[in-house]
Design brief:
The chain contains 15 helices and 14 strands. By secondary structure, the protein is of the alpha/beta class. Strand 3 and strand 4 form a beta hairpin. It is globular. The N terminus is likely disordered.
Amino acid sequence: MNVGGASAPRPYKTALAWLYSLQQFGIKLGLDNIRRLITELDVAPRAARVVHVAGTNGKGSVCAMIDSICRAAKYRTGFFVSPHLVSFRERIRVNGEMISENDVAAGLTTIRDLVRNWEPHPTFFEITTALALKRFAEAGIDIAILETGLGGRLDATNAVQSAVSVITPIAFDHEKWLGDSLEKIAREKAGIIKAKTPVVSAPQQVPAEKVIRARAAECGSPLKFVEQPYTKSPLALRGEYQKLNAAIAIAAVEALKLDWLNPLSSAGAGIGIDDAAIGRGLARVEWPARFQCWDKRTVIDGAHNPAAAKTLADSWSEVFADERATIILAALSDKDLRGICQALAPIADSFLLPKIQTARAVDPQELSKILFSVCRPGASPVGNRSGCPTISVTKSFIEALTDARARSNPILITGSLHFAGEALAHLRGEPAAFEECEQ
């Protein structure tokens, strides 16, 4: 019976509220809890081959391409990625379909009962990883594509034996957890390499490449650096950089040696992943907030570190030439804000800085000070071009978007995947991620 007309919260929202409450435990890198969860839930992916992807930028795009290619070849896939943009359900997919609200509620209830008295208590990401593996086990998948959450060596996804390890470009990010040099960060990322397991890597800066080569040699694992972009067929994802991501995804699929896995094949023989499946998969892949053209004059991109912002700026110039952007920018306070601003300033006509719905966001006034120091006349890297972008603080994303649409320039929404998710939710007319578990 409802009291005062209030309706009871749905099981999905109740389960998510519990999961999000675990963020009080913060980030705890290590594999003991996730190994225990995998054992007690009996969800090790024994019948599926696992593609494990680490790196700083491009992980999600590469994972999405691998998933799409494998599905195009009629393999049944499980896809685990983070963070989500609008709905938690985006993190866990089977054959392209997001996990259902009922499966989230049931799975989290089972895990909650299991871990109630565990010390130390599993973290948000450990339990989310276990939920994904549980769903994959129930669905009987052929191939699991797992994206690391943070680093690699001690990331919860590294408790699973992989069939191929993939490392996308390594750059500075999460230095608090991964180290203050490329060597240290690469050491954490390269920790996903398993003994005698194929490794596929993007081109790397010299310090990172040395670490990856040393780790692969130590493990006796064959290593391939992918140098040339894929150009044989069209890609659904925009930006020249996605052609290299496509080549990395294809190399990872080839390393799986999948012929025997095809569910349509007789024992010992199968169609594998041919060029036609690769072409279909790359033409159909969907991956929001990665140079996503929402309409003819609005681009959404979750670039959240200087390397990603530089790639975004290059992609903008490829598509819009010398036309500068009205940039709606919001970022998290623990990022290299100055580096992001320096990368974006050369393509900006103006910056609009909204307040967004996460406690981790940098205050727009603070971000404006950084932008002013970067964009003032004579400042590097934009001081030698004529005109400096204007900078304005707005109360909300809605106000910033209204302002941007009143101007003639094309619009770029960027700075954070969290912010990209908030923007997409508004544009789609859906609840934002922060609203999903509210009761």
